[in-house]
Amino acid sequence: MSIYEEKLEQDLEDIRTEVHRVGSLASAAVENSVRSILTWNRQLAYETILRDQIINRAVKNIDDLCHAFVVRHSPTAGHLRFVSSVLRVNIALERVGDYAVTVCREMARLSKQPDQRVIRDLEVSMEPSRQSLIQALEALEKGNSELARGTKKMASHLGKTFDRAFADLVDEGEEGAAPILDLFALLVIFNRLSRVCDQAKNICEETIFASLGETKPPKNFRILFVDAQDNCQSLMAVAIALKNYPDIAEYSSAGCDPSDELPVDFVRLMESRGHDMREVKPVKLETMPEILGDYHIIVTLGRDLIGKLGKIPYQTVVLDWGEYIDCSGEFPAYDSCYESVSAKISELMEILTGESPT
Predict the structure, then answer these.
(1) From CA 30, how far away is CA 331, in angstroms rounded?
(2) Residue 282 — φ and ψ, nearest 5°?
(3) Considering Cα of 71, then 76, then 79, then 83, what sign does the dihedral take?
(4) Which 8-state DSSP code applies to residue 262?
(5) Same-domain check for residues 285 and 321
């Protein structure tokens, strides 16, 4: 190995070492922030806030090391991918430190220690969040794309842990068991812990990019179209989306009070537009939160349908397109609705993909 190669490897090792150090500091900050609540230790919370200055200085040092590496070695290919990934990981770690600070500041505002349900949720939430961060950093340090993929999948599944915590907070509020300001503080605390998992996923994606050159694939959305009977607008929307945007999302339809069959004129219109409706059957809408939560977007097409969805899951977006036609109407009504729904789907897809329809 030449002197230049030795220097390059040493500089890379210095970056890895510093990333490992900052990752350990950020992980410890998350643990201490939650521990301050579990042990009702405000001094630990205040010390954790102050120690964020150490993380901030270390983050700046990583920036300096990466920029110096680029100037000194003019890296290409794998080395350049690694350094660019570290710069983005650096941002993620700084944010994790900020999340821990926020948890500590909210802890200091609590009027009393949370009850046992919330304490249990904090205990259950902290370790998986912290572990996903530790594994993500280990994957980066070792350049292990398979560990990164596994950790990313694990972090994604942690969402249900936080859903339960948010539900318990709602129960606390309904029971009047905690002051409203405490509930808001706890909501912020759980939100920041969930964001630690999000940053772990980001680090995993950077590891995969650094190791293999693979970039994050476009998000595949799950979209549910709902109308009153699932025999007209909702099916129309699914058919249009499947034909024009098959790779953007998974599309489903449902009706609040599903019809037994499709109107003949509707089927004729759809066939004239190139959609085969022979095997299509109306489906009943299931309004349980765990089912609706499987969809990123729910679109209602009809009068006063949003209220029939029930409780909307936290991560789900609901759009009211307000289309309504009498499914016993004449052919021109379907034709006009088709054009309107097509335009709205094009607009939605442009928002989701950033690309104008062709």
Answers:
(1) 61
(2) -60, 145
(3) positive
(4) -
(5) yes
DSSP 277: -
Sorted by sequence, the CB contacts under 8 Å of residue 110 that are 6+ apart come out as: 37, 182, 185, 186
Domain encompassing residue 239: 221-353
Identify the sign of the CA torsion 145, 139, 213, 97.
Answer: positive
18-51 confidence digits (pLDDT tens)? 999 999 999 999 999 999 999 999 999 999 999 9
Q: How far apart are CA 154 and CA 135, in angstroms?
A: 10
Report the number of distinct structural domains present in the chain: 2
CATH of the domain at 231: 3.40.50.2300
**SS3 state at 154:** helix
Q: Whole-angstrom Cα distance, residue 167 to residue 137?
A: 31
Q: How many helices (H) and strands (E) does the chain have?
A: 11, 4
Residue 158 corresponds to which tokens in the numbers above? 């942690």
pLDDT digits (tens, 9 = 90+) for 130-161: 899 999 999 999 999 999 999 998 887 776 66
Beta-ladder partners of 226: 254, 300
Which tokens go with 294? Answer: 């499987």
Strand partners, 298: 224, 318
Same domain assignment for residues 52 and 96: yes
Check: CB of residue 76 under 8 Å from CB of residue 4: no
Residue 358 is assigned to a structural domain of this protein:
no
**What's the longest Cα–Cα distance across the chain?**
82
State the pTM of this model.
Answer: 0.71
Query: How far apart are the C-alpha atoms of 166 and 161, rounded to whole Å?
Result: 9
Which of 212, 240, 262 marks a domain boundary? Answer: 212
